[in-house]
Amino acid sequence: MIKCGVKRMERIQKIIAQSGLTSRRKAEQMILDKRVKVNGQTVTELGTKVSAKDKVEVDGVPLDREEPVYFLLYKPTGVISSVKDDKDRKVVTDFLSEVKQRVFPVGRLDYDTSGAIILTNDGELANKLMHPKFQIDKEYVAKIKGIPDKRHLNILRKGVRLEDGVTSPAEVKIMSADRKKNTSIIHLTIHEGRNRQVRRMFKALGYDVVKLKRERYGFLNLKGMNPGDIRELKPHEVKQLYKTAVT
Predict the structure, then answer these.
(1) What is the CATH class of 137-217?
(2) pLDDT tens for each residue of 53-109
(3) So where are the chain's domains?
(4) Does the keyword Nucleotide-binding apply (predicted)?
(5) 10-62, CATH topology level
């Protein structure tokens, strides 16, 4: 397992955030509100550091402090981006059945979309990566019905009006087109994470998505991986993710 999580001594607000309980900023407010204890003593200083041996409590409840782990999954289609499903469908965490830590997906990929998705138990990193202000690039390859003209490509590049607002500008490129079958393969890079966003963007312009794959999340790609494959991120990759989502 990667040893890139809790160090020998860490600021207590970071430890609380990494547990997934809340964000670091809210953790700091909890400390100021005298809701945090270390080894039975109330902590009020934000600079307080703790080790793995210290007992941390928030509102009287011991903090669950697992060793942080980080994975990249090539999610196949027909899999739910969740830790459980009320319809008993396969979920992304089923691919990590041997992992003791309670990991969860960072963001979502649609049931019928394949591709790169991060799984971790590091709540602080997950919150950073999913926050809109950090604008993490996500690169998709879409097979669609139809061949977009220059006007529609420009709309995608400038922003598509959807029911929940205009999308941010996207990078778009037609990779190939089959005029006989009236289909095309499109590379699309966005940094937002709205529900079924790519499919809705094309639908708004009159194109149905036949197949969709997320090839890249930030700097992480699927090179050498097949659907269902999962790999543990290397320490330098975890550090780079934190740098990508710097406050």
Answers:
(1) alpha beta
(2) 888 999 988 887 778 899 999 999 999 999 988 888 999 999 998 888 889 999 899
(3) 10-62, 70-133+220-244, 137-217
(4) no
(5) 3.10.290
Catalytic residue among 86, 94, 110, 164: 110
- The Cα 141–Cα 126 span in angstroms is 24
Long-range contacts of range 191-194, CB-CB < 8 Å, 24 or more positions apart?
191/135, 191/136, 191/137, 191/138, 192/132, 192/167, 192/168, 193/107, 193/108, 193/130, 193/132, 193/138, 194/162, 194/164, 194/167
70-133+220-244 belongs to CATH 2.40.30.30: no
Exposure class string for 205-231: b at 16+ Cβ within 10 A, else e: bebebeebbbbbbbebebeeeeeeebe
Distance CA 218, CA 199 (A): 20
Token pair of 103 as six digits: 């990991």
Check if 110 is active-site.
yes
